[in-house]
Amino acid sequence: MLHPSHFTAVLLFALCASTVFGITMRDTPKRMFRYGAYCFALFVGSVVVFSWVMFLIAR
Amino acid sequence: MHDPCSCIVDRGMATTPNKPAAAKTSAKGFVYLPLIAGWLVPGAGHFVVRKPIRGALLAVSIISMFALGLAMQGKLYTSAQDILGLLGMAGDFGSGLLYFVSRALGLGAQPVQTTVADYGRVFIVVAGLLNIIAAVDAHNLRTGRKS
Fold first, then answer.
1. Where in the sequence is the domain holding B84, given as residue range(s)?
2. Does any domain span residue B20?
3. What residue of B is the nearest CA neighbor of A18?
4. ipTM
5. By the 8 A CB rule, do B34 and B50 touch?
6. How far apart are the CA of A56 and the nearest CA of chain B, in angstroms?
């Protein structure tokens, strides 16, 4: 059985979802790559931000 | 003297994309084949419309996500007792043959008992939803709605 940490699971999820979003939402390879990278950054960035928010709320 | 109206019309015609012609050339055969193939096998719809690199990347992403979900001991929905179960089952159905083969092999049958298993359940549902997006994209490529 696979036991990734929460953050590793987020990275795997973001990588797969961003790849599909990039390919399906844009027309040219360059724009696909840029949009995929944008989605990946938003996924991971929002997780980091909300993690800090929850950490500060819990204190 | 130059007529401004004709200039606007000419410019408009020159910049209009040639979509009807593209749609006409791509409308031969069974239009829904990429949609169905893409649903049954992730990425297959893009292979049908001759976009193999996109198809391979989609296949790797979606199959990896589904396999990771199963490896985390995520649950496959087999029946719907409530509305959330129904939505989860609809998401699982999106994976096409992956779902049916996994059920036939008895994978994902155990109940969710750990947090990681719950992540796995989400991975499986989202893989199905992403596969539906990919299949619809292949259909759009086939009909000429997307290049």
1. 29-143
2. no
3. B61
4. 0.92
5. no
6. 22
